[in-house]
């Protein structure tokens, strides 16, 4: 009888000419890149080369292509970022980025995929915002959405997957620890700030914890573990949402974006972070504080540190 035959097939591209040593080297490089990213995104330092107060607008989910997106308000808030000492951070979900079974929803909105990406590029690169970070939210991550955003802006804007933890280090050596996330784990029907508050009380070492995602807004400041904590959730710009209506979620207006004024000269930690549900008001406070601090410096007055 003839010898049993073997199934002979050509090797796939990934298998061809790769020895075990080659595979180990490839995996070693992959792990090194992952570790470099992890180390760089875990409590890295963002240097602020001044001692004047600064402002950060934490943009709630823009969903910029949605017909219910309050585009006029979003543009108004981006213009505030041109004020001296003002920065921006996006908490995720730049566009709807409908995919899979949800892709059919594009037939119900006037903005096409092509136009949505043009709007995303404007927001990330051309709106006049100096970005501290951009977060990838769940809508951003669907299909190839995150990769598309990275190709648009990664060379000019720090992009983080879901969360960013960093320390704002001012010239007078005062530092503020920030934990920003698209959302934090946990939900409570009685407390819309449950997620970030839970993180503040059960592990995160941040002075400021801020998120978006759930299209509701809240601001809370309290002391825990001998540290003054501020937690905030930005509502976002998407309005008149059919999904929210069908599921009985209330339509709210509070805090589409959160603005924080961070004053490195404040001697009392409870006054170091001031939080505003209306960035317009926060921008006025920032302007006044910077003017006062600058005047004190010119007169040779000692500002508390």
Q: Can you lay out the helices and strands and say which pair or pack?
A:
Blueprint: H1 20-41, E1 42-48, E2 54-59, H2 71-80, E3 86-90, H3 113-126, E4 131-136, H4 138-141, H5 145-153, E5 159-161, E6 163-170, E7 175-181, H6 194-201, E8 208-211, E9 218-224, E10 227-233, H7 242-246, E11 257-262, E12 273-276, H8 279-298
Parallel strand pairs: 1-6, 2-3, 3-4, 4-5, 7-8, 8-10
Antiparallel strand pairs: 2-11, 6-7, 9-10, 11-12
Protein described:
The chain is an alpha/beta fold and 305 residues long. The chain has one domain (46-298): Metallo-dependent phosphatases (Purple Acid Phosphatase, chain A, domain 2, 4-Layer Sandwich). It is 30% helix and 23% strand. The protein has 8 helices and 12 strands. It has helices spanning 20-41, 71-80, 113-126, 138-141, 145-153, 194-201, 242-246, 279-298; strands at 42-48, 54-59, 86-90, 131-136, 159-161, 163-170, 175-181, 208-211, 218-224, 227-233, 257-262, 273-276. The protein has a 6-stranded mixed β-sheet with strand order 1-6-7-8-10-9. A 6-stranded mixed β-sheet has the order 5-4-3-2-11-12. The longest helix is centred in the first third of the chain and has 22 residues, at 20-41. The chain is globular. It starts with 19 loop residues before the first helix and ends in a 7-residue tail after the last helix.
